[in-house]
Write a structure and sequence with these properties.
about 575 residues, alpha+beta, Threonyl-tRNA Synthetase, Chain A, domain 2, Rossmann fold, eight-stranded mixed β-sheet, 19 helices, 27 strands
């Protein structure tokens, strides 16, 4: 039966306390088996817990099952977990042989520190645990890795033991399955398998898109281009390289210089753009603007470059060159809410198209390195919150996570493996119009400042493609797949009809291939399944004679006796 304490807690708080307690359980096991180890810190994490230690002799992978078994034994003792405040002097005596704990004690304000206890094991702690060790049931130790004391590379090198913990056995098993799926359907693995993209030492961090990968990117661009055109957006293109004087004026130089690529031309310094904003602003400034032109929505599929450290590069998720579907909306203050509401509807519609309907909204506020005064930041932040309130969309505040030039709305989507991805953003910017002295002629003939709304829906096309590949486990929707249909014949006798059908489908704008091999039908089906082809069209003697087709989907389902006209109609309805 659940304890009264657990019943009062939210699921999230209960999970947090469980994982916090699991970290103490791990430390307890370490000290029983390896008593000469010095413990440092062990917090809960998003999926579990870890503890950083300084062992007398380095831990090895084979130590994990031993430690895990000892954790289970301690849990079975059903020890009560208690917490109390003790004097710093008492704490110094208790941890006199551990310099890490002594350093922590000295850094805690006041005359007392928190002490957590379970049996004869004690640790510094602020509190927040389950009641008894027996409640810590569903956990697993996962890895040993290196770390540093207080994350300082110049500090003492430590070893980190990590684990996962959940409230139920089912939650634990589901998480382990998601990890296996994430490894199996890693977009880097799929990209190579499906011949979509590759990476080479000659261009580290710069993806090479093969023909099929480029087809997918073109579909992504084409879909968004049509959607934005219908919504009254105007597409532009700005140069890849611009004078670094421009980047200094915009503020990007100050915040991005370590990630920018520079070149000297005719004794002037230029930079490859890390962002698209200044180029769009120069187009706005090209001539005087009237209030009648506003809102002016300028969108660009802008190529940007950022010098990311080699250690953080990760497939399409973190690259050094990528394409942002960037829109800069120049509008009046009175138009802000309407434009944000319109943007939110566009983003929701786009996400639904790709199968992402479980969205979470965050409002990121002023960071420490922000430009501009607090009043403008407050005004911009309130503008975002007002629009979300008007749209009836719940949100959370993400303190200090805004861009240097303005707060932003972040749209997070949940994929098929229950992972969250942040892609779409909407940002209000009062500062760049000031920096670049932007204006428009108001209805009364006076000059006024426009507001810039920065909008991106995919965020990075490359990253979004990586997310899609993992979300769909390689099986992209029919409309997005680079090859939508593959024609398979039972024997070479059906090749003439298959070729005729190939040309007919191509004339209707469908992306189709003919398997020209002499493989058996079962081998052709297997090859098409490995290539993640959405529709396989099987053609035998009967289909050739009757001018029909049999559709075989990637999951093995079949529909027989479909006429050519009906098949084309079905395909076009799936676009």
């Amino acid at each position: 039966m659940s304890s009264p304490l657990k019943e009062k807690l939210s699921h999230e708080e209960h999970l947090h306390r469980l994982r916090h307690s699991a970290a103490h359980l791990l430390a307890h096991a370490v000290m029983e088996i390896f008593p000469e180890t010095q413990l440092t810190l062990g917090p809960p994490t998003e999926d579990g817990f870890f503890y950083d230690c300084l062992p007398k002799k380095n831990f090895k992978e084979e130590d994990l099952p031993v430690l895990q078994q000892r954790m289970k034994e301690i849990a079975a003792r059903n020890l009560p977990l208690t917490h109390k405040d003790i004097s710093k002097q008492e704490a110094r005596t208790l941890f006199k042989n551990n310099p890490f704990k002594i350093e922590l004690i000295e850094g805690i304000p006041g005359d007392t520190v928190g002490l957590a206890s379970q049996g004869d094991f004690h640790d510094l702690c602020k509190g927040g645990h389950v009641n008894f060790t027996k409640e810590i049931e569903h956990f697993k130790l996962t890895s040993i890795s290196g770390s540093y004391w207080r994350a300082d590379r110049n500090g003492t090198a430590l070893q980190r033991i990590s684990g996962i913990a959940f409230l139920t056995e089912k939650d634990l098993k589901d998480h382990e399955q998601r990890i296996l799926d994430a490894q199996l359907y890693d977009h880097r693995r799929l990209g190579k398998q499906l011949d979509y993209f590759s990476f080479h030492d000659e261009g580290p961090g710069f993806p090479f898109f093969h023909h099929k990968g480029k087809l997918i990117l073109n579909q992504l661009v084409g879909y968004m281009r049509a959607m934005l055109k219908k919504a009254g957006y105007q597409e532009i293109e700005t140069p890849l390289m611009l004078s670094d004087e421009l980047w200094r004026r915009s503020g990007h130089y100050h915040f991005y210089q370590d990630k920018m690529y520079f070149s000297c031309i005719d004794e002037r310094s230029f930079a490859i753009k890390p962002m698209n904003c200044p180029g769009s602003i120069l187009i706005y400034k090209e001539r005087p603007r009237s209030y009648r032109e506003l809102p002016l929505r300028l969108n660009e599929f802008g190529r940007v470059h950022r010098h990311e450290l080699s250690g953080v590069l990760h497939g399409l998720f973190r690259v050094r060159a990528f394409t942002i579907d960037d829109t800069h909306i120049y509008c009046t203050a009175d138009q802000i809410q309407h434009e944000i509401l319109t943007n939110l509807e566009l983003i929701r519609g786009m996400m639904k198209k790709f199968g992402f309907e479980n969205l979470k909204i965050g409002v990121s506020t002023k960071p420490d390195n922000a430009m501009g005064d607090d009043l403008l930041w407050e005004k911009a932040t309130n503008g975002l919150i007002s629009a979300l309130t008007a749209a009836g969309m719940p949100y959370t505040i993400q303190e200090g996570e805004g861009a240097f030039y303005g707060p932003k709305i972040e749209i997070k989507m949940q994929d098929s493996m229950n992972r969250e991805w942040q892609c779409g953003t909407i940002q209000i910017d009062f500062f760049q119009p000031e920096n670049f002295d932007l204006s428009y002629v108001a209805s009364d003939g006076t000059l006024k400042r426009p507001v810039i709304i920065h909008q991106a829906m995919y965020g990075s096309l490359e990253r979004f493609l990586g997310v899609l590949l993992e979300h769909y486990k390689g099986h992209l929707p029919f409309w997005l797949s680079p090859v939508q249909i593959r024609l398979l014949t039972v024997s070479d006798e059906q090749k003439p009809y298959a070729t005729e059908l190939l040309h007919l489908l191509e004339q209707h704008g469908l992306r189709v291939e003919l398997d020209s091999s002499s493989d058996t039908l079962s081998a052709q089906i297997k090859t098409a399944q490995l290539a993640k082809i959405p529709w396989m069209v099987v053609i035998g003697k009967k289909e050739a004679a009757e001018k029909t087709v049999t559709i075989r989907y990637h999951d093995g389902k079949q529909i027989q006796g479909i006429s050519q006209e009906e098949f084309i109609k079905m395909a076009q309805l799936s676009l």
